[in-house]
Design brief:
By secondary structure, this protein is α+β, with helices and mostly antiparallel strands. It folds into three domains: 174 residues, Beta-Lactamase (2-Layer Sandwich), CATH 3.30.450.20; 83 residues, Helix Hairpins (Orthogonal Bundle), CATH 1.10.287; 149 residues, Histidine kinase-like ATPase, C-terminal domain (Heat Shock Protein 90). Helix content is 53%, strand content 16%. α1 packs antiparallel against α5, α5 runs parallel beside α6 and α6 packs antiparallel against α7.
């Protein structure tokens, strides 16, 4: 039978939150990229066209005939001062940052910035060779926005100065700082900040919305887990979400139907077991009487036959006991008992089975009494089942070890049963405590299941492990102290 893997219930919550956030981030990214890119491009085009017009005006006021007369060191000549005066008037009228003229070799001819002298190389990293080709044809160009001094944004425009032959002689550059680009960048930063806050709010909203959906689903998962453990009293609470509400009502109806069917099956099983046990008790009594009548007979075969019949009836009786334990609702009648005394009694009950296989039963006891508050008959049944399983798993001449150990803090008492058999196949470990699962040809598959139910009902636990030296060890851990009267 294939097993379904358990999926954590919170994975739905994580998936939904992640989906919501992904959608929000995609919207923010697309919106920011398209909006700000478009706004910035539009602004650069608008400012660039105005600067191109200013550059063309400046080029008309710096004719070729005068520029060709400028030589290095002529900063204070009347012609150079007059040209700078005109460019200064244009700068003042238009509000641009700077106007300068440089040659095709990128050397300064005129610059309103006094730190650049005639003949010095000009830093034109933003000036592309593509611009140069257009300027040679007499057109004007402008750059996109770029960062320059003090992280400010600039846009530059260029206009050509042609010689008498129509060849490009010099380039007039107009640099303008643009606050608009800075504003756009600031708006972008603020939007990212707002987007961050929006993501946080979206996380909160997504968690609330997803929790509203996953809470009833988690309740259904928990209900299914209880059903798997045989607890049919659990119910799925109603949900305001219509689809989940329908699913919850269907699950509750299924729980009710399963509970009724399980109750009927257990009732029928108990009835069948009783019907079998009654004639079985009569047979056992008659065989006992028959054995007494044949006790004086010298025929040993009669005695062996009587003993075999008693043994087989004992097996049937144990089977019926296990079956009734599984089919009935488990109720406990607790008493305070000594764990060592209880273990010794159970060991005596398993002695006959061990003798038939030549198995040695060994008990390792603690020196101090270990008081536990348990249903003595139920716990004896559980320990006996583990001991008989260990005897059957051990090879002839082997040893079964029963140990009683208290925990260090005295809060727990452990009963461990270790056999000398081949151990448990790892592929069967997960199914050991399933009802009706057995690896024995004559087993019912109810022994370990009943043992676990009894131990769990006592507030304890049972677990097993393969021993490195061979064999398997089953351990029952029970509360090692008697409760107060209030707890009873």
């Amino acid at each position: 039978m294939k097993r379904l893997l358990k999926t954590p219930s919170f994975s739905i919550l994580i998936t939904q939150v992640g989906a919501y956030l992904l959608i929000i981030l995609i919207i923010i990214t697309v919106f920011s990229a398209s909006f700000f890119s478009t706004a910035r491009l539009h602004l650069e085009q608008e400012v660039g066209r105005k600067l191109q017009d200013i550059a063309a005006i400046a080029a008309k006021n710096t004719p070729f005939e005068r520029l060709e007369l400028i030589t290095p060191g002529a900063e204070q000549t009347r012609m150079v001062l007059r040209l700078k005066e005109k460019l200064g008037e244009i700068r003042a009228a238009t509000g641009v940052e700077n106007i300068l003229v440089f040659t095709t070799e990128r050397k300064v001819l005129l610059d309103l910035n006094p730190e650049y002298r005639i003949g010095n190389a000009y830093n034109t990293t933003q000036f592309s060779t593509v611009y140069l080709e257009k300027l040679k044809k007499g057109g004007t160009v402008h750059t996109g926005s770029y960062r320059h001094k003090k992280e400010r944004f600039f846009i530059s425009a260029y206009a050509p100065v042609l010689d008498n032959a129509g060849q490009l002689f010099a380039v007039v550059a107009v640099d303008a700082g643009t606050r608009e680009v800075a504003v756009i960048e600031k708006l972008r930063s603020r939007l990212y900040w707002i987007a961050g806050v929006g993501v946080v709010l979206a996380v909160i909203l997504a968690v609330v919305l997803a929790s509203r959906l996953t809470r009833p689903i988690r309740g259904m998962a928990q209900a299914a887990e209880h059903i798997g453990k045989g607890d049919y009293d659990v119910r799925v609470p109603p949900s305001s979400i219509s689809e989940i509400g329908v699913l919850g009502r269907s699950l509750n109806e299924m729980i009710y139907q399963v509970q009724r069917r399980d109750a009927k099956l257990k009732e029928m099983s108990a009835s069948v077991a009783h019907e079998i046990r009654n004639p079985l008790n009569s047979i056992k009594l008659l065989i006992t009487l028959l054995g007494e009548e044949l006790s004086d007979s010298s025929d040993e075969n009669h005695a062996d036959t009587i003993e075999t019949l008693h043994y087989e009836i004992g097996k049937l009786d144990r089977f019926l006991t296990e079956f009734l334990t599984y089919s009935r609702t488990l109720t406990l009648q607790r008493d305070t008992v000594d764990a060592v005394v209880l273990a010794e009694k159970t060991l005596q009950m398993a002695a006959a089975e061990a003798d038939t296989k030549g198995i040695e039963l060994v008990m390792k006891r603690c020196t101090q009494p270990q008081l536990i508050h348990v249903d003595q008959n139920r716990l004896e049944q559980s320990l006996l089942n583990l001991l008989l399983n260990a005897v059957q798993a051990s090879d002839t001449g082997g040893t079964v070890l029963l140990e009683i150990e208290p925990s260090g803090d005295g809060m727990w008492t452990e009963f461990s049963v270790t056999d000398s058999g081949p151990g448990i196949d790892p592929s069967q470990e997960e199914r050991l405590f399933e009802p009706f699962f057995t690896t024995k040809t004559t087993g019912t598959g109810l022994g370990l299941s009943n043992t676990r139910n009894i131990v769990k009902s006592h507030g304890g636990d049972i677990f097993f492990q393969n021993v490195a030296t061979g064999g398997a060890r089953f351990t029952i851990r029970l509360p090692g102290h008697a409760p107060d009267e209030k707890e009873l």
